[in-house]
Write a structure and sequence with these properties.
heterodimer; A: 7-stranded mixed β-sheet; 4-stranded antiparallel β-sheet; globular
Chain lengths: ~120, ~120
Amino acid sequence: EAGVAQSPRYKIIEKRQSVAFWCNPISGHATLYWYQQILGQGPKLLIQFQNNGVVDDSQLPKDRFSAERLKGVDSTLKIQPAKLEDSAVYLCASSLSVGYNSPLHFGNGTRLTVT
Amino acid sequence: AQKITQTQPGMFVQEKEAVTLDCTYDTSDPSYGLFWYKQPSSGEMIFLIYQGSYDQQNATEGRYSLNFQKARKSANLVISASQLGDSAMYFCAMREGNTGGFKTIFGAGTRLFVKA
């Protein structure tokens, strides 16, 4: 089966600019996640969708970050305006089921550098 | 509160030897899942092994096994017969929640170096 697709792979922007990331989950996976991974740390959940509804966005900085999942399939994550501390890898993941036994399947991530 | 603790920032192991990566967790939910993921330098996160909170037997997947000690809230990963390709970051993760939504949280990771 095709894995989780993410683009772009790399992005360099200046602070106060905007940027968008795209993710297409594994076919049939209803749950989609965006994680932020700062260098040297574990991934931190930003937002979780179940189909096209938001399940958890408690750690999403809503003054600058937004995400949507149209038609319950692919998703975009946007940052506007970007800050230096947003430099990180943004990982998209999907899971087949909602239960506690469902592993996450990750894309290759987007490495964002804010200068 | 830290829910997943990985106390070893870095570990070295000789090729062909076994290594244990430590993980402790904290939860009050009776139902949860524990996972280990591998992240090579290329960046992708690869699912390795899963252990459910009700599972009586320790999980095994090829050279990977999970040493699950529920009373101590530990879920250590054991890699047998280490290979050079095992050099990577390893993350312990816990999935908990309810029908309203399950969340997966990650530890800070352990970097494993396999020496030839």
